[in-house]
Amino acid sequence: HGRTERGNLRILLNRHGIDPSDREFLDFFKKTGRNYVACDRDAILLPYVKETIERLSKECCLGLTTGNSEIIARKKLKIVGLDEYFKIGGFGNESEHRGELVKLAFNRAINYGWRGDERSAYVIGDTDKDIASGKSAGLRTIGVTTGSETREQLENSKPDYIIENLSELERVLI
After folding, report:
1. Is residue 145 exposed (0-12), middle (13-18) or buried (19+ Cβ within 10 Å)?
2. What is the rounded CA–CA span in Å between residue 139 and residue 106?
3. Cα-Cα-Cα-Cα dihedral of 14, 16, 20, 24, to 10°?
4. pTM exceeding 0.70
């Protein structure tokens, strides 16, 4: 749990003595992305997610970092109606290291026209790995207790803030 798709693929291929090139990774993720079918019956959107993202999108530059490849992540976002809110991101096909994905998303936000800096950027996540990736990129972090980890586990990762669900996010950010 917590690896990127690129990291998982490297482990699998290395077990078979294969060390893929960047080009081979790119080809693989294009093919798997095209063939991936996102099913809405499997999609679960937690309470407060859509309305919070809708409101924040009017005030903030929203980005996404995920261990999923970009093509698959965008298909999943589309199923739950969130694809229009995340123009930038860092994706699991781009790096094996989650902190690198955060840095990619941060730099893309700047290139997209966002005028913030490290003090005004937050990584929001529900695992210790999410918090660690934000910290490794030098950004503030917000733990959300809606995932599989307990509040105590999140506290141990030392996020800047902890909230119970996304309805509390605006009071921290704005």
Report:
1. middle
2. 9
3. -140
4. yes
